[in-house]
Prior knowledge:
The complex is a heterotetramer, with two copies of chain A and two copies of chain C. In chain A, 66% of the residues lie in helices and 3% in strands. Chain A has ten helices and two strands; from the N terminus they run βαααααβααααα. In chain A, strands 1-2 form a two-stranded antiparallel ribbon. In chain A, helix 5 (80-93) packs antiparallel against helix 6 (103-121). The model of chain A has no long low-confidence stretch (mean pLDDT 94). By secondary structure, chain C is of the alpha/beta class. Chain C contains eight helices and twelve strands. In chain C, the strands form two sheets. A six-stranded mixed beta sheet of chain C has the order 1-2-4-3-5-6, with helices on both faces. The chains are: A mainly alpha, C alpha/beta. At the C-D interface, helix 1, helix 6, helix 7 and strand 11 of C face helix 1, helix 6, helix 7 and strand 11 of D. The structure holds adenosine-5'-diphosphate (2 copies) and magnesium ion (MG) (4 copies).
Amino acid sequence: MAISQANIEKAIDTTADTVVRNELYFSDLDGLAGDGDFGISLATGFKVIKKDLPEIDKPDVGAMLLKLSMIVSKHVGGSSGPIWGTGFMKAALVSKGKTEVSLAELAGMVGNAVDGIMARGGAQLGDKTLLDALIPVRERLDAAAAAGETDMGALLKSCADIADGAVDSTRSLVAHRGRASQVGARSADTPDPGIVAIATILTDWCKAFGVERAAVAPEVAKAVA
Amino acid sequence: MAISQANIEKAIDTTADTVVRNELYFSDLDGLAGDGDFGISLATGFKVIKKDLPEIDKPDVGAMLLKLSMIVSKHVGGSSGPIWGTGFMKAALVSKGKTEVSLAELAGMVGNAVDGIMARGGAQLGDKTLLDALIPVRERLDAAAAAGETDMGALLKSCADIADGAVDSTRSLVAHRGRASQVGARSADTPDPGIVAIATILTDWCKAFGVERAAVAPEVAKAVA
Amino acid sequence: MKKFVNDPANFVPEFMAGVLAANPDLLEGNLEFQMIKRKDGPRADKVSVVQGSGSGHEPAHVMAVGPGMLDGACQGPVFAAPPVDACYETIKALATPAGVLVLVNNYQGDRMAWDTAVEIAQAEDIVVDQFIINDDVAVQDSLYTVGRRGVAGNFFVMKCCGAAAEEGQSLAQVKAVAEKVNANVRTMGLALTSCIPPAKGTPIFEIGDDEMEVGVGIHGEPGRERAKIKPADEITEMLFAAVADDLPFTSGDRVALMVNGLGGTPPAELYVLYNKAAALCEARGLTVARNYVGEYCTAIEMAGCSITLLKLDDEIEKYLAAPAQTACRIF
Amino acid sequence: MKKFVNDPANFVPEFMAGVLAANPDLLEGNLEFQMIKRKDGPRADKVSVVQGSGSGHEPAHVMAVGPGMLDGACQGPVFAAPPVDACYETIKALATPAGVLVLVNNYQGDRMAWDTAVEIAQAEDIVVDQFIINDDVAVQDSLYTVGRRGVAGNFFVMKCCGAAAEEGQSLAQVKAVAEKVNANVRTMGLALTSCIPPAKGTPIFEIGDDEMEVGVGIHGEPGRERAKIKPADEITEMLFAAVADDLPFTSGDRVALMVNGLGGTPPAELYVLYNKAAALCEARGLTVARNYVGEYCTAIEMAGCSITLLKLDDEIEKYLAAPAQTACRIF
Ligand SMILES: Nc1ncnc2c1ncn2[C@@H]1O[C@H](COP(=O)(O)OP(=O)(O)O)[C@@H](O)[C@H]1O
Ligand SMILES: Nc1ncnc2c1ncn2[C@@H]1O[C@H](COP(=O)(O)OP(=O)(O)O)[C@@H](O)[C@H]1O
Ligand SMILES: [Mg+2]
Ligand SMILES: [Mg+2]
Ligand SMILES: [Mg+2]
Ligand SMILES: [Mg+2]
């Protein structure tokens, strides 16, 4: 099973819609224990991505993702700039020159992005950041690649389930990274906006690629298209 | 008919109660077209008067009123300081050395106070200030003195009626003096807090001296004891 | 009440005690009369410039005391003119053979208090004169009212009179400076919120989330009209036109441009306004020789602004450039 | 939304354009990267001191640029660290053989952005080093978190590093000054209201009329706990004890005392707090050699304050007294 560059572009375009639509909602979630800028920061970058994506020179997946990383570095402030910029950049490095990627290659891109984000921000699994969604997704992809799974729809659905589940399973945790960590115990019982964003994006991808799936966490249900 | 110094002192003490009780209400009224400080300014001075009145050296009515004028000059800010301070001072000047005053002398004290206030602030009848209550009261007192009226209770009631009526009769006017004059036509349809204060004081005096009378203007009804 | 306050009745003396504590070398005061003066004055050969008005306009008025600015000032309760005694004690404390000039912002309460105090002081042979500041174009002037208010333009009158007095000019000369500056300065203000005097504990007026008050003074009194809130550039155009048309200012004039915050508006927003106001000056051919962006005359924590234009000549520019020092400082 | 704003997306470049327009002789900028720098720098023989963080803290950070303070600064959107590119361009614009010192307030977003930018700059052989400021005692430090935040104490680090760099000290020496000041400064903040980032348009958190947030940072993030509002003196005691106990400061120390407004608190209230804080210093035997009352580091229009204590020695006092000039001025 190979994933075409066109599908990756479609996923990015869908992501931009998700993020821009939730500009204020994601910021409201960030305001519960953080500083209320997450949605705005991300949307600032993805508005540019949405507009530029059709026109940019994108000979291959790696070049396309590198360009996205540069847009994020120029336009996204806050922690989200370095986190998402690093993610795109690290994924770009291992997809240089490819116009389609295998499932194993996709798993490698996500894995490299996750490693890069962990190195940049120092967060671990359980610190109540978007890594709590991304790390299990990465493991699921690695396993799927190793097992030679071919049903991409089922795999996407299962990744979305994982991320969506992370919203509820991390809700009661105290944040250890980001601004939310500086309010101490008060971050418990608030959802992490980064995890909500990842879960919403994956759920919106399901819809975009014709995979049936209903959101579970209330925040994700509220945020999906 | 003579009015004793003790009765004048009792009237002042009652006035202090009226003003202190309405500190916030009179300020709220001043906030409708003015700057919301009238009640607070006046109460600041009358709290001192209430406290000091029993103790101050007051050989005669004039000396007592002069002392009140000095307290007002020291403690009352805003327009109310010079207005009420001048009023007490001018009344004091024509009651020097007296331990009781005749009705004609009382009319003279009020008349001198009104003239002083008009000279100090430049306001005329119809400018929507407390003079719109005081000027007709002064005329009523002059007439009563000329006619040799002896029913002090009836006279007090009729003065209170006049002041109370001024609240409603001036309500629709545009203020020409004080801060309310600087908002232009917007001062129309708001009661003048100074007129409300005079009407409330006179109504409270009725009660203090056993004269039956019900307030008419809604603001006065709200402010009386 | 969202305020740092102990007993509201002690708010003014407590904050003034703080100003004195923070400036022990520069200032001294008499808190019984809510008065603060330069420690090094009065001087027999120098005119004293004094002012006094309600509190809540900080840095005006007691925080405008210092070399090159006011020699002394007293404050009333928040938004209420100072009591007559405070005015009188302030004149007396700054009395000097060279004379005292009282700069009065045109509010009836202030005028009555200072009129009375000046009468008493003159009766005691103190040399004292008064000047009335009235730069607010929002108020329609008329024979039947007290006339235009004194608002943020007051800063320029204080600054220039302070500089002229420091130069050793006579009482008549310093008053002439006040007249000249006042004749050439115009201000218009606008509020987005009301404000809460500590003793009152509640906002002076109610205002909708999408509304603004146009033509406000500095006491939380309502303005001339209420309107729907507009983008910053349109607000700037409206205020700017009101001041620039009034004098009128003409192409080629050199001006000082002030964007004053009323207390609750953060610096970044004031600079958004300044950005547009400077462009409007340029469009009219006015050269902004000096600019002032910040809080000069406030209405406690009201969100809002005023725009002030002062037409310059060489003399006024010299006074504006002269050194001065007050309780307001950064470093 | 009670704000002077046009398109919220242009808020930061518009206000920065206003700052540049108001200071044409002092500053120049590159608004594509939300960057402002001293017009007369960089100089080959002088270390450049730079900073950059979210907007909404004015006068920090771009308004702290000028002789004796920062050589350059860049800003992100309100409360969001600047994008990596802006940080990189700022370092590049101020690069000099003497080196660039980046003063980073300890927020994860700022750190990640500057880390990345410094890596890129170093790869291009630009001489650059970083220092992390973390004066906020409200945050419980621990191995598992990002640690204490950098808040109003930042002012003293900028001031001292700016003065040291102006004196011609080396990069290592200027960094040592940052270390020393940071090691001796402590801050604690408190909010009475939330605030409204222009792009968000609504308050970050809800708070009751009788409540306060204790231990807030400067981004409108909630504090460590919510409590019933208290009289000003009790609030001052609480904040003062938190900072004074932390170092700890001891009797006989000379200190700088700062009462910083978070944006929506008027000067009179800050002086009520100062009045008490100065008395508390005296009670502990601390001599307030310098004081700072005003807005140094804000959270847009949040009503609130912070108290900062800096322990002085001769070197730090010399740096604090050195001349400096920024976009913030009064006259
Ligand atoms: N160190 C980190 N590593 C990975 N993700 C993080 C980290 N810190 C925060 N995040 C994610 O970023 C989100 C917040 O982003 P944003 O609001 O832009 O950051 P900031 O805290 O700088 O305001 C959080 O919800 C969390 O999921
Ligand atoms: N020139 C004047 N002469 C007489 N009374 C006046 C005058 N101006 C105002 N007043 C009265 O004083 C009241 C307002 O007092 P106050 O709030 O203390 O004054 P300020 O306008 O200075 O805030 C008004 O309601 C009015 O009745
Ligand atoms: Mg955030
Ligand atoms: Mg009033
Ligand atoms: Mg008043
Ligand atoms: Mg942020």
